[in-house]
Amino acid sequence: MATVTLAAPARFEQRIRHSRFLALATSVDDVAAAAAWITAQTDAAASHNGWAYRVGDACRCSDDGEPAGTAGRPILQAIDGQGLDHVGVLVSRWFGGIKLGAGGLMRAYGGTAAECLRTAPRRSLRLLITANVQATPAVLARLRGRLARFEATLDATARSGTALVLRLPAEHLPALERWLADQTRGQGRCRTP
User: pTM, whole model, 2 decimals?
Assistant: First the structure.
């Protein structure tokens, strides 16, 4: 199953019982990028800035002063509910004078995030893996000439006479392993960390 992320930043705003909720969402490459984006987008004038991100197995969320579990967790559930990955979402709230209660806050933060994500453009995210290929220098030389076939790039700093370290889309690994087995009569090795 292909991993899906956002193709472009998204924004959605709504008013709920006089409070203004603004959701911003974007694609992020890693946890550090997610944290930096959230910091940069946080509005100091807002009453609260709840946020969440998902990057593979790594996820975090914050209620930013709202009652525990009423902002960050619903935002994360909106991300997960739409099957997205490598995504950060920030929902800022400007208090409008009417308390929403825990259930109302959860619906407001989660619903604002979900609508922002629902209307956002999406794209498939290709999973890149690292493969350590060990074979004779002659086989590795032939492999260097066929890197484009596997959409692979060579990590030039991590090669030796009998080993190459490649970055390639995960879906091309089986073809690389078959090619290597054919070229080395099963003697070559292809390992992924």
Answer: 0.70
